Structures are given as C-alpha cells and as structure tokens.
C-alpha cells in the first residue's frame, strides 16, 4: 500500500511540488524571520498542502541561514490548558541548543515559568466559566475575592517573563519555524484554542509560524466555537499572509495512476480492446473524479487490495473504473454492484423483476442528479461502456422513462463473459468479493476441462458426469454452466480442442438433457446453432479436419439427442424443410457436410433398436428430425410398428410429450395435436385406444393409470 502521509522529500513527488516548494522557501527567506510572523498554507483535504510545506521546510533547512523547524501537533495534546505547556516543551530543546551554554539554565527556567503561568491563567478562565455544577456559586465567590488578585499577579509576572524570554530569543543565531499541520482536523473548540495560542505568542522574535489548513473548514469551526458571524475575518487577524496550494493538473494525476496500474499489471499482457478500454477509463473517469493526490493514493491502494488477488479473473479497465467510482462516489458504486448482480439473473433465468427496468434507471439518475441535460447524457453514455443494458434512446424521452436491463438474453452478455468484464454473470462477483458468483465455475476449471478433452477424454467424461450430478443454487446443473462458459470462451478454444470436446460431449451430453433449465421442450445446448456449443465447429478451418470431426461425431456419438439438434438446425438452415432457409454463405454446415451427416444419421436410426431410440431425451424431436429430412414415411412406419401393442402405444406416447408453460400452471407436459395427426392415426383413433386401455378390467393397473394420465394430456388439447 502507498502510505497516505505527507511527503518528506522530493523523491516521491509526482505532481511537481518540488519546484513550488523551492519558490515557497525562497519567499519565506525574503521575509525577516527574526520579526516573527504567521503564514497560512491553504488547500482542501488531500490537496498536498502538508507535503508542500514539508518540502519547503526541507529546502529551508538546507540553507546556511535556514531556520530550525519544530512540528507542533496540537491534536496530541490532552487539553486546552496544556497547549502552551506542550508548545514550550517542544520549543525548549531547540532554543537551548541555539543559545550559549551559560544561558541555557536560566532560559529553561524562564520557559517553564512562562508556560506554567500562562496555563494558570487558562485554568482561572475555565473556573470563571463554570456553571450548572455543584459548588459553582462558591467557586464564583472565591474567584471574586482572590481570583482577580491572583490573575493580576500572574499577569504582572507573565509580563516580566515575557520581556526576559523575548530578550533570550532575540539573540538566537537561527530563527525557528513552528509548523502546525492538519489544523482543519481538530474539533471547532480546539481550532479556536490553537488560533488563540498562535495569536498570543506570534510576535516572539525569531519564531515564525506556518499553519496548514482548509480555510472553509477553519472559518466554519471558528464561527461555531466562538459564536461569531465571520470566521474568515477572525482567521485573517491571526494569519498575516497565505498561500493557496495550486490545484493538481488532471494530466499529472492521470499519468501517476497509469504508472501505478502498469506496475500492478506487471508482465500481464492485455489485448488491444482491453488496452483501448483502459485508455478510455483514464480519459473519462480520471477527469471526472480525480482532483487531489489523495484521490490517486486511495484509488491505487484500493486496486492493490481488490485487483491484485483476482487480476486473472477480471478485466483491468473495468476494475480501474470500479475502484475510481468506489473511492469517489460510494452511492454509485453500490448501485453498480446491485445492477450487475441483477443483470446476472438474465443469464440464469432470462428475466428481470417487473417494473425494475424503469425503477432502477430512475435510481441511477437520482444518484447523478447534479448532472443535467447533455452532461447527464454524456455521463450515462460513459457508464454504458462498462454496463450493458442501458436503453440510451429512452434517456431522451420524457422524465421517468429511462430504462436499464435492456438485454434480451444471455447471448448479449457473451462478449462480456469472454473478456471477464464487470457485467459478466460469471465474473462480476470477483470485482466485489474476491470470489466467483455462487454456483459459478472459474476460468481455470473451464480451461482444464478443454485440455482434458484433448489429452485425457476419459477424465473429461467423468468430470462432466460429476457436474451433471451437481446442482447450482440458481437452478440447473453445473455441467450446463460449463457448456455456457466454453461457448463464451470460444475465442480461446483451439481447433484441436474442438475435436476432443465433441468426442466427450458425444458420449455424455444427452445425460444432461433431463436437467436442462429451459422453458422450451428442447434443451438449448443440444441445438446445432452458432451460439450453442456445436457452433465451435467454425473454429476448425481445415476442411479435411472438419470432415473428420463431423464423420466421427455422427458415426460414434451415443448422444443422439445432440445429433438430432444438429440435424434439425441444418435442415431448416438449408431450406430442406419449412420456410426458414438461409443464404448459403451463412450456413454452419456446407452442403457436402450436411449431406454426409444426414445420411449417417438416418442409417443409425434405421439400425438402432426401438429401446435405444425410445431412451433418447426429447424423443419427439428425433422423430420430427427424421420426418423432416425427407423420409416422411420412415418415422410413421416405425411408430406404427412400435404401437401395435397397447404397451408399445403407451411407451411411445409417453415419450412424445412436450413441455408447455402457462402463467398459472407453470411447466406442464402435453401431447400436441400435430404429433397425433402426423405420426399416429389421428386424435380420434388414439383417444379410442387410450379409453379402451383405461377401462379394460383385465388390463394391468399400471397400464391403466398411464392411459388415464395420457388422456388428461390429450384432453388439454381440445
């Protein structure tokens, strides 16, 4: 961590304070320090005023005629009555060191008596102000009789000592500069006491004072403590001249942060797009929020704490952006954390709570309410570089219309997942809690699985089965998440890994289908589309290698449901069935590849046993794929053969049910009318057979119950 303390030498100077300090030191020396004066160095908290004074004092001490420096810390003093005592205690060793040895004992005695009498007067003043306490009236009477005499005696003695002390100090070879830092961090009453103290002893010869403070804070403290209307006017009576610390150039602050981030990144290589985003962060958010040296220190320390442990799991640009926001706008930081957490729900469930789109958008505008019009729009546009889902067009409509969460599905978040961005459902938690979201897989495990697919497929198969058996807190299984992560990381998947991955998935992906989280009747990951896992075939550019992978997949894969999804997608894409044909240049499989795949697929269906086909997940999709390939009679004839017996009819119908969702019933399983009309003898014939089985007194009870269950699904179609 960078320790947030003032600079003591120019080696750590990042903002050009060294040159300013030299000029400030020269300005001090041009005054006659022997006369004593009070100088104020003014600046906001974190502006570097303490560092600037330290560097100036360092320059003064280097001069042959330079002063001796005392750093007085009033916040360490226990009470107001001890302030003067402590100041003289700090002055004593310096004063004595500058005097001839013969005068030291006498001077030490004078300093002690002066401090004691001054503190005594402060005690009398305190007693005079006592009220509302036991014996207060008695104390007041005593003070009336003896306190005034004691005060007069003390004042006369103090005057004599003052003259003696002034004579001693006037003979010093070097002046003394008393630096009182962080005056603006004291309580209002303490601020008033320190200013009174400085005012009381500011005219000692050879003793000058430098006070560092925020003038706005000090003026307010004096007004509150003394009950006066103009704290600045009071301050001007104490401080004879002041110097304002110049505002740091944003260019310098930005470059300082860039240097520190470069050190944090070390040898980590970031790609062109990430570097461009990082440059954008420096330009936009440093200009927006970094104002002082302390701002940079706090951002860098926040990065060292929050970025270093997870730098392989996050995007550097997003992390720097987030830590700048965390340091300077905690309310916006909290909003961002809530937003990306809710955004991850789109990846898991595909929806956001009703009304949240506008409500959360208005919350954001409320946080940045100080920005209006074009300035507000530019700020929101800048945020959208890191946070997807902003409906920027709605920002320009009537008040209250700005919407967020404008993301249609997890596919829109895939680029953020691939680059480990702040808005990635798989990575956002690393930005806030050093660990991935609950129910997530880290990038290392995904990478290890891909390597195992190529080098140790049996281990990869075993691991995939383990993940099928492992349920996520959000629903579904970890194996489905693994597939999503692989698709999101497609840029880093090598062509050689694709072949190994397809061999592994060809063995086990169908086992995941019964656990798929989907409103549709066919698991998304089984679909042969670009955005699903089969789309990785595009990573293989060599035609012969592609043919080899596809032939092996369709020849040997046990996962017939996955092959079904691939075939059905190509059937529609090539226009072989339906009206959704695409231009040839957009096909995932070429004409030759599709022809080879469908020929192998049909041969496997014809050679498979009925029990093997009936065990395929989403069996109705397999039958439809077969039907849509042009062999319409093949699946109809197969079903006719399998449904000659009542047992066969019940088994086939049971496997032809499809998922259906309604708002009041949730997910239901139905027998679709189109299924009965296409592959059976029609609704009437099937209904008649089911009723006969259900009412047959001689039929097996289990068969009768199954017939009744299917009839309920059947009647729902009416």
UniProtKB/TrEMBL annotation:
Residues 19-304 form the KAP NTPase domain. It holds the Pfam family KAP_NTPase. It comes from the Bacteria. InterPro entries: KAP_P-loop, NTPase_KAP_P-loop, P-loop_NTPase. This is AAA family ATPase. It comes from Pseudovibrio brasiliensis.
């Amino acid at each position: 961590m960078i320790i947030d303390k003032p600079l003591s030498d120019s080696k750590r100077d990042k903002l050009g304070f060294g040159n300013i300090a030299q000029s400030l030191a020269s300005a001090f020396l041009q005054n006659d320090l022997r006369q004593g004066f009070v100088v104020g160095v003014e600046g906001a908290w974190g502006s570097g005023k303490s560092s600037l004074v330290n560097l100036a004092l360092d320059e003064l001490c280097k001069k042959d005629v330079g002063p001796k420096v005392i750093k007085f810390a009033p916040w360490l003093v226990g009470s107001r009555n001890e302030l003067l005592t402590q100041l003289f205690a700090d002055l004593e060793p310096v004063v004595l060191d500058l005097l001839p040895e013969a005068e030291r004992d006498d001077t030490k005695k004078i300093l002690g008596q002066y401090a004691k009498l001054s503190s005594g007067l402060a005690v009398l003043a305190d007693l005079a102000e006592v009220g509302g306490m036991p014996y207060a009236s008695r104390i007041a009477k005593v003070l009336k009789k003896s306190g005034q005499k004691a005060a007069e005696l003390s004042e006369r003695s103090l005057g004599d000592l003052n003259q003696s002390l002034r004579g001693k100090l006037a003979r010093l070879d070097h002046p003394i500069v008393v630096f009182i830092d962080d005056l603006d961090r004291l309580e209002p009453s303490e601020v008033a006491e320190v200013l009174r103290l400085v005012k009381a002893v500011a005219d000692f010869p050879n003793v000058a004072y430098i006070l560092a403070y925020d003038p706005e804070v000090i003026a307010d403290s004096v007004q509150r403590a003394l009950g006066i209307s103009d704290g600045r006017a009071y301050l001007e009576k104490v401080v004879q001249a002041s110097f304002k610390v110049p505002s740091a150039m944003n260019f310098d602050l930005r470059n300082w942060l860039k240097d520190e981030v470069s050190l944090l990144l070390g040898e980590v290589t970031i790609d062109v797009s990430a570097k461009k985003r990082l440059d954008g962060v420096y330009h936009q958010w440093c200009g927006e929020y970094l104002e002082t040296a302390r701002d940079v220190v706090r951002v860098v320390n926040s990065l060292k704490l929050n970025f270093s442990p997870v730098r392989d799991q996050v995007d550097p640009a997003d992390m720097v952006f987030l830590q700048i926001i965390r340091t300077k706008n905690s309310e916006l930081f909290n909003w961002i954390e809530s937003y990306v957490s809710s955004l991850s729900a789109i990846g898991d469930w595909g929806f956001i709570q009703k009304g949240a789109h506008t409500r959360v958008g208005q919350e954001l505008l409320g946080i940045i309410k100080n920005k209006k019009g074009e300035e507000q729009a530019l700020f929101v546009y800048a945020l959208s570089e890191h946070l997807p889902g902003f409906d920027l067009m709605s920002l320009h409509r009537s008040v209250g219309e700005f919407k967020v969460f404008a993301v249609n599905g997890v596919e829109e978040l895939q680029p953020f997942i691939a680059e480990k961005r702040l808005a990635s459902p798989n990575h956002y938690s690393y930005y806030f809690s050093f660990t991935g979201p609950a129910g997530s897989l880290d990038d290392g495990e995904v990478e290890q699985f891909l390597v195992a697919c190529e080098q140790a497929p049996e281990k990869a198969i075993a691991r995939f089965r383990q993940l099928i058996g492992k349920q996520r807190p959000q629903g579904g299984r970890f194996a489905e998440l693994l597939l999503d992560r692989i698709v999101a990381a497609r840029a880093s998947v090598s062509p050689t890994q694709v072949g190994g991955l397809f061999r592994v998935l060809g063995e086990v992906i169908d086992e995941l289908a019964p656990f798929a989280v989907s409103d549709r009747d066919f698991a998304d990951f089984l679909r042969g589309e670009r955005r699903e896992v089969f789309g990785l075939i595009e990573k293989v550019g060599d035609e012969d290698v592609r043919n080899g992978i596809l032939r092996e997949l369709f020849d040997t894969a046990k996962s017939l449901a996955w092959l079904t999804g691939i075939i059905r997608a190509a059937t529609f894409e090539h226009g072989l069935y339906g009206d959704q044909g695409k231009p040839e240049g957009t096909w995932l499989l070429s004409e030759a590849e599709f022809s080879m795949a469908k020929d192998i697929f049909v041969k496997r269906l014809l050679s498979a046993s009925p029990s093997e086909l009936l065990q395929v997940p989403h069996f109705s999709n397999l039958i439809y794929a077969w039907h849509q390939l042009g062999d319409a009679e093949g699946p109809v004839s197969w079903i006719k053969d399998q449904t000659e017996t009542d047992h066969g009819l019940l088994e086939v119908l049971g496997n032809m049910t499809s998922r259906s969702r309604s708002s009041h019933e949730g997910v239901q399983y139905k027998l679709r009318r189109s299924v009965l009309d296409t592959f059976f003898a029609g609704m009437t014939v099937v209904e008649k057979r089911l009723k006969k089985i259900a009412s047959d007194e001689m039929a097996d009870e289990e068969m009768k119950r199954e017939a009744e269950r299917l009839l309920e699904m059947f009647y729902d179609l009416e």
